[in-house]
Amino acid sequence: MRYYLIAGEASGDLHASNLMSALKKEDPSAVFRYYGGEKMQSEGGELVKHYKEMSYMGFVPVVLHARTILRNMRCCKEDIVRWRPDVLILVDYPGFNLSIAKYVKTHTDIPVYYYISPKIWAWKEYRIKSIRNYVDELFSILPFEVEYFEKKHHYPVRYVGNPCVDAIEEFLSSRPSPRPETSSRRQIAILAGSRVQEIRKNLSRMLLAASQVEGYEYVIAGAPNIPLETYKKYMPEGMSVEVRYGQTYEVLAESDAALVTSGTATLETALLNVPQVVCYYISAGRLMKWLKKKVLKVEYVSLVNLICGKEAVRELVACDMTVENVYSELCAILPGGSKREAMLSDYARMRAILGESGASRRAAEAMVGLLNKGKGPAD
Fold it and tell me: In degrees, to the nearest 5, what angle opens at C-alpha 294 toward C-alphas 59 and 128?
């Protein structure tokens, strides 16, 4: 069968590539065409456009690149209709993907599957109308989404497990041995986000806090689309810090603790059993803190806390993200700190809630099974 996938950022590229690998095992005749990145390319098929040409965040960047975004959407719609896949698989990236879903459902009979559902439980809940009208099957990777979609919106969703569990399990199995507790090297990992805006707001504060802890080195896990000069630009004056690319899991596994912006990285850090502080600075912090309570539909911003249903990891957001607060919370989770053991215990509970590995395989099995049953594949 012919599969058309759309992933608009690095994490989507990773999860889509794992799904493609699983689809090939379920369907040896699988042919792929996609918007994505290098990881998807490694699974074969044809890359139509790289996600680096599509990823814009924030009101101003979106407005400035409106023509490019609209052109990308138009080209994508035309390409799907021209290629006539048996199924369209959308991976997160809702601003773009829901527009594509609407067009495909109203102009073709191609079924639309959504893998890694839009986070409408956090904001933009109105998107449920688009999901209901234009998405045939929704595949979730977060356990609490099942109750949210089915009980609140009466929309069926398939929880397949979380692909981060698979990725971490594969990584750990490939390592010769865990980092010895007696290792003389003491390290703090810095994960400052995958976008320039996040790095500009967070990196200098994170480094200033980490540098106050005596006896520790600190390493930045570099995002693949961020050049080294960008990191250097936002380092405190006179501070030289190692930046390692393509080794995020290695950096975390070698660290005693981590400072992490919100997003998938908080979940990956927890699955690697590294205590963390979630840091996300926002300008006009007090106003933003007030607006957060009014705009967000959830109490927490990190996936760890959302899955646990409690503040398992400390979230320092908006005006709470100060160098002093980060330093204080960091000391509390380093070896011997007052909050370290409780956090590790919550991590164990979180892993149990997520369930066993095999998310990509279960998603692929379900997708191929549905298509083989004749649920609307294209002619």
Answer: 70
pLDDT in tens, 1-50: 999 999 988 888 989 999 999 999 999 999 999 999 999 999 999 999 99
Q: Tokens 């994170």 appear where?
A: 206
Which H, E and C letters describe the chain, residue by residue? CEEEEEECCHHHHHHHHHHHHHHHHHCCCCEEEEEECHHHHCCCCEEEEEHHHCCCCCHHHHHHCHHHHHHHHHHHHHHHHHHCCCEEEEECCHHHHHHHHHHHHHHCCCCEEEECCCCCCCCCHHHHHHHHHHCCEEEECCCHHHHHHHHHCCCCCEECCCHHHHHHHHHHHHCCCCCCCCCCCCEEEEECCCCHHHHHHHHHHHHHHHCCCCCCEEEEEECCCCCHHHHHHCCCCCCCCEEEECCHHHHHHCCCEEEECCCHHHHHHHHCCCCEEEEECCCCHHHHHHHHHHHCCCCCCCHHHHHHCCCCCEEEEHHHCCHHHHHHHHHHHCCCCCCHHHHHHHHHHHHHHHCCCCHHHHHHHHHHHHHHCCCCCCC
pLDDT digits (tens, 9 = 90+) for 285-298: 555 555 555 555 67
Q: pTM (2 decimals)? A: 0.85
Q: How far is CA 188 from CA 181, 348, 350, in A?
A: 15, 21, 23
- d(CA 43, CA 17) in angstroms, rounded, equals 6
User: For the chain, which domains are there?
Assistant: 2-161+358-372 (3.40.50.2000), 177-354 (3.40.50.2000)
Q: Is 254:274 a contact under the CB 8 Å cutoff?
A: no
Position of tokens 């397949």? 160
What count of other Cβ atoms lies within 10 Å of the Cβ of residue 288?
Answer: 16
Dist CA 130 CA 101 (whole Å)? 8
332: CB partners within 8 A, 6+ apart: 338, 339, 340
CA dist., res. 113 & res. 116, Å (int): 10
